[in-house]
Specification:
The complex is a heterodimer of chains A (117) and B (255).
Chain A: E1 25-29, H1 39-44, H2 46-64, H3 67-80, H4 87-98, H5 102-109, H6 111-114
Helix pairs in contact in A: 3-5, 4-5
Chain B: E1 2-7, E2 13-20, E3 27-28, E4 33-34, H1 35-40, E5 44-51, E6 54-62, E7 70-73, E8 77-83, H2 90-98, H3 107-117, H4 121-130, E9 137-142, E10 149-154, E11 163-166, E12 175-178, H5 194-204, H6 211-218, E13 228-235, E14 240-245
The chains are: A mainly alpha (117), B alpha+beta (255).
């Protein structure tokens, strides 16, 4: 069964999809100080970031009853201080611009490393 | 994830990827969706990284993520990364980092450094293959010349272990494909996205290799599945990048 797509055939004519599925575009100016590079992008999209972190918080609350995020907010900023330039500064800038605790912005940025297990 | 590079009959390279994320992170029984995947989709953006008013490279990111998962340097190379699962995974690397071993590089930060600093396909390949990583990963790198395409398989914590699998090595000559498994092993029966993708690529044929052909491929299940957030399409020689949100309506594989 795995020799075939589950539908039994390869899709045709999917391109181009409707324009509503195109993603928005932004410029990141690397000449700005790291703390300011992401300000416009994250400020305009902070609700999406809040929603994502809320989804993760709700998921983990089932097991950790809110304690995990207390630890994340307390200890993850310590990792940020050890990250190479300019990444720690950029993460701090995102936290400042959105009001999201720095530990949670750091968690989002280290998700890949955590989920390779 | 699925990453694929194809070369058409005139030697033009096309690089595309599906980004899948959110496995086991909350299944919504009502809507048959993954909670984190659904939350990620609205924060997908295309970014134009500029220096002195000029494009240095372009990428597709989730808002708030400063590393690179999908990017293209105009006329030079394109890069995607696929997650490599391993018991000796990034979690151990994070613990080592916390204990003071800062000799490794975070995956997303390495890819960003490659996009900012590498000046050619060859330089990018060397950086991706020899930098000591904190977590295992697959890097899928495409160039701008015929045959310039490879998958770099990396372990955690070493800078001498890279497996570089080129399009010529792949036995397919005009395409190279990576999902989330080592190319020298069979994918597990419960997550074989490789075999259907190869079947669709062969059906498409090199004469139809194009951005639209790749979008068709990545819109076919199981390469399109409930974890898929977006499809990115890149053509380095004309600085073309298109990104579309993806949805997989039922019936659809959960991964």
């Amino acid at each position: 069964e795995s020799q075939l797509p589950p539908t039994g055939k390869c899709k045709n004519g999917a391109y181009p999809p409707e324009s509503s599925r195109k993603v928005p575009k932004y410029v990141i100016n690397l000449d700005l100080p790291p703390e300011q590079r992401w300000t416009k992008l994250v400020t305009e999209n902070k609700q999406g970031l809040y929603n994502l972190l809320a989804a993760i918080r709700n998921l983990t609350n089932v097991i950790f009853h809110g304690k995990l995020f207390i630890l994340i907010d307390k200890y993850m900023p310590l990792i940020v201080n050890t990250l190479p330039y300019p990444f720690g500064e950029e993460i701090a800038g995102i936290a400042n611009a959105t009001g999201i605790p720095m530990g949670e912005v750091a968690l989002f940025n280290l998700f890949y490393e955590i989920f390779t297990v | 994830c699925t990453s694929v590079i194809v070369e058409d009959t005139s030697g033009v390279l096309y690089h595309a990827r599906n980004l899948d994320f959110g496995l086991f992170l909350g299944w919504d029984f009502m809507n048959h969706t993954w909670l984190v995947t659904e939350a990620l989709r609205p924060i997908v953006v295309e970014l134009d990284y500029q220096r002195q008013g000029k494009t240095l490279f372009r990428g597709v990111n989730f808002v708030g993520y400063v590393g690179i998962l999908t990017a293209m340097k105009p006329n030079l190379f394109s890069l995607t990364m696929d997650e490599r699962f391993n018991l000796n995974g990034g979690f151990i690397g994070i613990i080592e980092w916390l204990l003071g071993d800062h000799s490794t590089t975070w995956m997303g930060f390495l890819t960003r450094q490659v996009m900012e600093n590498a000046t050619s396909y060859t330089v990018a390949q060397k950086m991706l293959a020899t930098t000591k990583l904190l977590a295992p990963a697959y890097f899928i790198l495409g160039g701008n010349k015929s045959g310039e395409a490879c998958v770099i398989t990396r372990d955690r914590g070493s800078n001498t272990d890279a497996d570089i699998w080129t399009m010529a090595d792949s036995g397919n000559e005009w395409f190279i494909l990576e999902t989330n498994y080592d190319h020298w092993k069979k994918p597990p029966f419960f997550d074989d996205r490789r075999t259907p993708a190869i079947k669709c690529l062969n059906q498409m044929g090199q004469k139809n290799a194009s951005v639209s052909g790749l979008f068709n491929l990545l819109s076919t299940q199981p390469n399109l599945n409930k974890l898929t957030t977006y499809t990115a399409l890149m053509q380095v020689n004309i600085n073309k990048m298109e990104t579309y949100l993806q949805y997989c309506s039922d019936p659809c594989w959960p991964w």
